[in-house]
Design goal:
mainly alpha; globular; 65% helix; 2 strands; two-stranded antiparallel ribbon
C-alpha cells in the first residue's frame, strides 16, 4: 500500500470516528452537572450483589464481558511479544560470563522487598472485592515483584523462582478459568458471566458472588503473563547476540 493510499485510509477512519463521536459528545451532561446515572446505577448494583468495592463490581460483574476481552488482549499481547522476541535467523543465544558488581544496599533492598511485594500482590487479589485493588493490580505486583531478584543482582535465583513453563500454564489456566466461570453462569442463570455464586454478607471476604473468583482468575493470568513477558525481554537483552559473535546488547549482568 503506497503512502498516499495510507493517508486516504487514515483520513476516512478519522472522519468516520468523528461522525460517531460527535453525537455522543454533544449529549454529554454539562460540566459540573449533578446528573450521574452511571454512577448511581453502578453503586446500587454493587450493593445489591454485596460487592463493597464498586470498581471490582463494575469490572467483574456489571461489565465482566468487557474485562474478559481485556484479559484476552493481554494474553494475545504476551504471546505475540514472546513470538517476536525469539532468537531470529541471524541471532544466537549465549550465557554471559562473569558477575556484575552490585552494591550491598541494592542487594539487601531487593531481598527485603521481594516477600513484601509478594504479600502485597496476594492481598490485592484476594481482597479485591472488598477493598481497593483486584486481579489486574495484584497480578502486576506479583509478576513484576519476582524480578526484584534480578535488581538484587541474582539472575540465577530469579530463574529458579520463575520457571517459565509453570507460568505459561498459569497464564492459560487464569484465562481459561475466567471463560469457564462465564460458561457456568450461562448454564446456571442463562447469561454469560452471570453472578450465580451465593452473594454472602456485604463487606465480608467471601462476598460478591463470582467477583472474587474472577479476581483470582485475572490475578493468576496477569501475574503469569507479566512474568513471562519480562523473562523474554531479559533473555533478549542479556543472552541474544548476532550470529557469529559481536557486541551484545547492554545490560549484561549475571550471578
Amino acid at each position: 500500500m503506497s503512502r498516499p493510499v495510507r493517508y486516504v485510509v487514515f483520513c476516512l477512519g478519522v472522519v468516520g470516528l468523528a461522525i460517531l463521536l460527535a453525537p455522543a459528545v454533544a449529549h454529554l451532561p454539562a460540566f459540573g452537572s449533578t446528573f450521574h446515572p452511571y454512577r448511581t446505577l453502578a453503586v446500587a448494583a454493587a450493593v445489591a450483589h454485596r460487592t463493597a468495592n464498586v470498581v471490582s463490581a463494575i469490572n467483574f460483574d456489571q461489565r465482566g464481558l468487557d474485562t474478559f476481552g481485556e484479559e484476552s488482549i493481554f494474553l494475545a499481547s504476551v504471546a505475540g511479544a514472546a513470538l517476536l522476541l525469539r532468537p531470529g535467523e541471524h541471532e544466537t543465544e549465549r550465557r554471559p560470563l562473569g558477575h556484575a558488581r552490585m552494591l550491598d544496599a541494592t542487594r539487601l533492598l531487593g531481598y527485603v522487598l521481594l516477600p513484601l511485594s509478594t504479600i502485597l500482590g496476594l492481598d490485592l487479589i484476594s481482597h479485591g472485592n472488598v477493598t481497593p485493588g483486584g486481579g489486574f493490580q495484584g497480578g502486576v505486583v506479583l509478576g513484576t515483584g519476582l524480578h526484584l531478584l534480578y535488581v538484587a543482582g541474582s539472575y540465577d535465583a530469579l530463574e529458579k523462582m520463575r520457571p517459565t513453563t509453570l507460568f505459561e500454564w498459569g497464564e492459560a489456566i487464569g484465562a481459561g478459568s475466567y471463560g469457564a466461570l462465564g460458561v457456568a453462569g450461562l448454564l446456571a442463570s442463562g447469561a454469560f458471566l452471570a453472578n450465580f455464586v451465593p452473594l454472602g454478607h456485604f463487606g465480608a471476604l467471601f462476598s460478591g458472588g463470582t467477583v472474587p473468583l474472577l479476581n483470582i482468575a485475572v490475578g493468576i493470568e496477569v501475574a503469569s503473563g507479566g512474568a513471562i513477558l519480562l523473562s523474554h525481554f531479559l533473555r533478549q537483552a542479556m543472552f541474544t547476540e548476532p550470529a557469529g559473535g559481536g557486541r551484545r546488547a547492554s545490560g549484561e549482568r549475571d550471578e
